[in-house]
Each structure stands twice: as structure tokens, then as C-alpha cells.
Amino acid sequence: MAGARAAPPETGSREIEEHKPLKLSTAINEKESPVTTITDVVTSMREYDERLECRFAKHAGELFAPQDGSMQEKLRESITNKTPVEVHYNQDTSQITNVLRAPATSGSGKPGAGGSPTKSPP
Predict the structure, then answer these.
(1) Which residues pair with 10 in a beta bridge?
(2) How many CB atoms lie within 10 A of CB 84?
(3) So what's the architecture of 35-101 in CATH?
(4) Strand ranges (DSSP E) for the chain?
(5) Cα(21)–Cα(11) distance, rounded to whole angstroms?
(6) Of 35, 87, 94, 100, which sees the most CB atoms within 10 A?
(7) Confidence of residue 94 (pLDDT cuts 50, 70, 90)
(8) Residue 55: which residues within 8 A CB-CB, separation 6 or more?
(9) Model confidence over 21-37: pLDDT tens digits?
(10) What does the radius of gyration of the chain's CA atoms come to, in whole angstroms?
(11) Domain range annotation of the chain
């Protein structure tokens, strides 16, 4: 039996069957938060837990804004001038994501309601 050799055990040298690549869904991770837009006049603002709590004339409840200079400025202008602002906020968290001056409507009777100063003719 010195001349007979046993076949070596398989060491995984077989070719692996080719599989199609997996297609993973990231729909859960990419779920967008529901953002809503309102156009309203800010009636009050107060500091609350390092954020600003804002209340509006028509919108029920409060929304929260970061203490960001430009956002805060537009919200304060709305209170002072009683002009509406366009507010984008996350419905789930009530967090304001953006504030824009509302476009001026014709016949509003308020000069500069759109945020751009008016000049009298020379």
C-alpha cells in the first residue's frame, strides 16, 4: 500500500456559483420628513430651551425656530410690521426649517410688504 495514495480532501477549490448582486432598499433610511409651508403673521416669540417658540395669527399651536440671525430677523419683522412670512416647518418636530418674506400681494396698501424697500420718485 505504499504506492497507493488517497485523493486529497477538497479544500474549497471548486468554483462558487455566480449569484446576482443583491439590490438593497434604502427606502426606510431615505424617508423624507413631512415639510409643510404656511404663510402667516407672527404674533409672538419667546426663547424656549435654546430655541425660539413662535406663535402665529392663523396657525394653531407653536413652531420652534433655531436662534439663527436671518430667520430670527424675518420673524421679528413680521411681528413689528404685521406682515406675513412664508414658514417651512417639519410636521413631526414642529421645527422651522426656513423663513421667507411672503410675496407682496397687489392692493395690500402696505409699502414694502414684500420685503423690498420702496423709493419715492425724485
Answers:
(1) none
(2) 22
(3) Beta Barrel (2.40)
(4) 35-40, 42-48, 51-56, 62-66, 85-90, 96-101
(5) 25
(6) 87
(7) very high
(8) 42, 43, 44, 45, 61, 62
(9) 666 655 555 566 799 99
(10) 31
(11) 35-101
